[in-house]
Amino acid sequence: MEGINMCADKAINTGNPAAQKAGLSPSTSIQVEEATILQLQQAMEKGEVNSQILVQQYVDRIQKYDKQGPAINAIINLNADAMNVAKALDEERATQGPRSLLHGIPIILKDNYNTKDMPTTAGSVIFKDSIPPNDAFLTNLLRKAGAVILAKANLHELSFGISTVSSLGGQTLNPYDLERNPGGSSGGTAAAIAANFAVVGMGSDTGNSIRLPSANNNLVGLRPTFGLTSRSGLVPISKTQDVGGPIARTVSDLAIVMDIIAGIVDPDDPSTELGKGKRSSSYLDSLNEESLKGKKIGILTDFFGASDEAQATNEVIKVAIDDMKKLGVEFVDITIPEIKTIDAYVVKMEFEATFNKYLDSLGEDRPVLSFREMVEEKQYLLSIDKHLTSSLGLTMDSTKYIETFNNRQKLQNVILEKMRQLNLDAILYPTVRTPPALIKEERWEETNGNLCAHSGLPAISVPAGFTANGLPVGLELLAEPFAEAKLISFGYAYEQATRHRTPPKLTP
After folding, report:
1. Which position among 51, 167, 185, 391 bears the catalytic label?
2. CA distance to 176, 238, 326, per residue, from 346 (Å)
3. Distances 119 to 129, 289, 423 between C-alpha atoms, Å
4. Average pLDDT of 67-86?
5. Tens-place pLDDT, residues 25-34
6. Which ranges carry the Amidase domain (predicted)?
7. How many other CB atoms sit within 10 Å of the CB of residue 402?
C-alpha cells in the first residue's frame, strides 16, 4: 500500500483524566480530534491508549457539543453499554490481539441500522422504543470486527428528506454553520463525524443520503454498487435503491470500513449475490497517491448549477479540476442528454411493500401493524406526509413500475456507453450544485445523487474545499459497477494532494 501515513505522534497527548477511568496511567490519554483509524490502532498497539479511553473521550465531546455549546443535535441515543464493550475488547486485545483494524474503534450508526440492544427509531417517535430482535447484517459485521457502537445518529425522519429533521431527534445543525442544515438523510451521522464525536460512521443512501451529507460536512462518503453491501436490518425506503455505506473524515478510514462490510453474501438480502466475488481483495491496499496519473475523466457539464448561488460551488470544483490536472488527469467535457428523458424513479412504488416487510421482521412488538396504519395515524413530521401519502397504495406489480424499473438498466447502459466511447475512467460533477442550504430548506433540484442511485453505479464524494464564506463543497466521482477500489484510490490521491479536510471551528 502506497502513501499511508502510519505516524501517530500528532494524535498522542497527555494529561486527560479519562485515562484513569480506563485503568491506564493518569498521564496517558489521546487527542481524538481528527485522529485516523491507523493512528489510533498504532497508539493502542503501543499501549499508549485503549478503547475505553477513546469511548470516554468521544462521549465527553458529545456531551460538550451535541446538546450544549453549539448544540449540533446529531445524536439520538448513546450506547449505555459502550464502555463495557470497550473494556472487553481491551482485554481481548491483551490476550489474543486485535480482530481487525476496527478493533476497539468507536463508531456511530445512522439510526436506521437495527441494533438488538438499542432502539432503532428511524428518527420517528413511532419507533422511539422499538428494539429489533436482531442486528442489521452490517451492524453484526462491524461488531464481529471489534468496532464499538458508541451511538445512534439522527436522520431525516424515515430517511425521506435531505435536511435531517425528525419528530424524535429534532433538527440537526451543520457544525460549519449553525444556520445551515447538514444534508440528509444521513445528516446526523455526518455532522457527528465532522464534529469528531466518533472515528467513523455508517449511513444509508437511497437517492443521495450518504454523499450529500458528506459534501455538506467536509467528509468522504461512498455509495457502493447495488449488491455490494447488505441492506437487511436497515429501516428501508426502496427495495432496489437502498444501500449501506461509510461516512468518514479520511479516505483511508472509509477503505478500512469497506474491507469489513463489502462483498459478503447475506442470505436475508438476495441482492448481495450480485456482489459475490466482486469486492477488492483490500480497499486499503488499493490506495495510491499516483492513481490519478494518466487517467481520463469526463466533466458532466449538465450537472453544474446555473444559479448565482451555484457559482460558489462551481468555482470550488473548477479549482479541484485544475488540481487534478496537476496530478496527471486528462479531462474532457461531456453531456449525456438521455439522462433527462429516462424516468427511473421507483422509490415511492417500492416504499409501502418494502416497509411492511420490515415491520413484519419486528414481530409482535412492532409499533404499528402496517405502513397504511402509520400513514393514517400521522405520528410523524407533517413535512414528510406528502411523500408517505403519495406512496400509499402503489405497488411493484403495476405496468408503470415494471417500465420504470427497466429504465434503470437503460440509464446505466447510457452512462457506461458514454464512458466506453470516450475511454473514461470516471465521471466528475459537484455532489450538490449549491452550498449547504439554510435550515428547513430542501433543494431536491440541486442534488446530483440520482445519477448513480437510479443507475446502480458506485460513486464517491470527497471534500473539494470551501466557498469564500466557509461552506464545504463536495466533488463526486462515478464509475462502472464494482469499481469501488478505483474510486477510493482516486479519492485518496486527490485527498493527499489537497488536504481539504478541516474540522469545524465550532467544535474545537
Report:
1. 185
2. 34, 8, 41
3. 6, 41, 48
4. 98
5. 433 567 899 9
6. 54-487
7. 13
Active site residue 391: no
From residue 137, alpha-carbon distances to 145, 159, 187, 234, 244 in Å are 13, 19, 22, 9, 10
Quote the distance between the C-alpha of residue 360 and its chain's center: 26
3-state secondary structure 139-208: HHHHHHCCCEEEEEECCCHHHCCCCCEECCCEECCECCECCECCCCCCHHHHHHHHCCCCCEEEEEECCC
303, three cell numbers: 450537472
Taking each helix axis as running N to C, give the angle between helix 251-261 and helix 37-45, from 0 to 180 degrees, rounded to the nearest 10: 80
Separation CA 74–CA 110 (nearest Å) = 10
**What whole-number distance in Å separates Cα of residue 211 and Cα of residue 190?**
10
Least confident of 3-17, 206-220, 305-319, 358-372: 3-17
Catalytic residue among 159, 163, 166, 209: 209
Displacement of CA 131 from its chain's centroid (Å): 23
Q: Cβ(221)–Cβ(239) under 8 Å?
A: no
Residue 455 falls in the annotated catalytic set: no
Distance CA 237, CA 231 (A): 11
CB atoms within 10 A of CB 373: 12
Q: Is 185 a catalytic residue?
A: yes
pLDDT for res 440: 87
Domain boundaries, the chain: 9-498
Mind listing the pLDDT tens digit for each residue in 365-375?
999 999 999 99
Low-confidence winner among 21-25, 55-59, 201-205 (lowest mean pLDDT): 21-25
Q: Judge whether residue 46 has pLDDT over 50.
A: yes
Question: Which among 418, 227, 248, 253 has a CA at the least distance from the CA of 339?
Answer: 418
Nearest one of 19, 90, 85 to 56, comparing CA atoms: 19
Q: What is the pLDDT of residue 5?
A: 30
Strand boundaries in 314-395, DSSP class E:
330-334
CATH superfamily of 9-498: Amidase signature (AS) domain (3.90.1300.10)
Q: Which candidate in 110, 239, 418, 486 is catalytic?
A: 110
